[in-house]
Amino acid sequence: MTFVFNKVIPFLALGLLFVGHYMGLFVAPTERMMGDVYRIIYTHVPAAWICLIAYTLSFFASVYYLIRNKMGADTFAEASAEVGVVFNAILLITGSIWGKPTWGVWWTWDPRLTTAAIMFFAFIGYLALRRFITEPERRATWGSVVAILAFIDLPLVWYSVKWWNSLHQLQSSPQTVDAAMVTPLRISAFAFLFLYIWMVHVRYKIGVKRLALEQATPAPLAQGATP
Amino acid sequence: MSLIESTNKSPSLLQTVWLILQKDLRIEWRQRARINATAFFAILTLLLFSFAAGPQAALLEKQAPGYLWLAIFLASVLALSESMRLENDNEALEGLRLLSTTPLAIFLAKAILNSLMLWSLGLLLLPLSIAFYDAHMELGLHQAALVLFLGSAAISAPGTLYATITSKLQAREVLLPLLLFPVLIPGLLASVKAMTLIYTGDPMQQLPSWLALLFGFNLIYWIVGGLLFGRVIEE
Prior knowledge:
Largest interface: A-B, 30 and 30 residues
Number of domains of chain B: 1
Order of helices and strands of chain B: HHHHHHHH
Distance between the termini of chain B: 28 Å
Number of strands of chain A: 0
Number of helices of chain A: 7
Radius of gyration of chain A: 21 Å
Strand content of chain B: under 5%
Distance between the termini of chain A: 42 Å
Shape of chain B: globular
Oligomer: heterodimer
Number of helices of chain B: 8
Radius of gyration of chain B: 19 Å
Helix content of chain A: over 70%
Structural class of chain B: mainly alpha
Structural class of chain A: mainly alpha
Number of strands of chain B: 0
Strand content of chain A: under 5%
Helix content of chain B: over 70%
């Protein structure tokens, strides 16, 4: 298992990332309306998918922690949320870069954009809160509550902003996109998925070690010294 | 009946909520300086918006509902953190838990108290925003009161939960708005939209859908808040 996580998954992630982006940049045809600008979707769209997966898994891990009180679930929830925030940042930055030449603006108050931005701040809040709680059990409990509250807000944000204002184009599906464009997109999506698994695995191991350090007996006490 | 007397026969949920609410209302009334300070802070915020927008009457009138809600939002952070700080002094929350109360009753009482406080604040700011921004209300006062009530309740349910979490932490002044504001966006959007319709009129009958959104937001966060509050205050 260690071999798979330490060698196979990083290799797959980086390899597919290279192949997917190479095909996206040089092999896939130019889009008729947008020209070459559209090629950013090979980073943008997979980042959106993985970001959503990361937050969803963080939510379920938080619920599981509140039911079973397993510290491992909370460590995973934090790892997944942290990696989710990274992909969320990529999503917002690439979206903004694409928006300027296509829509003529860096930012617009469209449901998808607004939801992505709010999601980003909600989970930044979750990560920030955790930094201020020193007691592991309390950090896990309060962190889980905040993650749940942030996640259940997403559909509400999406619908409220949708009613409020809408500009984003409908999402593409394999039926609406040329096959030559779909293949690199699929490869990139798998690349990001392996990248996510790799990053979460590393972050989870760090979390487990930090927790062990926090819960360990202080060195002088372990050696039998009187405080 | 006091909380101590009630230990012989356990009181119902509603009785407990009412007793805690009475206690908190009494404390708030005796320390009126805090309510006053929050109210003046909100009024000052209303004034500041007009300085930011410049003295253009038309622009101010158009933005009046948004400014009204932003003033309530900013003041809510102060009101929420103050209401929980009270319970942390002398470990008062611990004392409350030792009596025959349930976490659900404590949550409901605190959230209702915060809703009432913010609603009163909203009712105070409404005529002031009309005066400052030269706005007019096309729809009735009862509709405005309903929107203010639903919006205040929408802030209070997640707000009470987050204020309880952050009140014991060092960086509470920063953490409470950081956690609360992103979650409140749908509530803010619906409140501002509904208030705008009340100011400008509602020929397309859009008000019911925004009220439904506010109601749904409240329903979700009051239920989830009630479910999770026990875990938040456990030792």
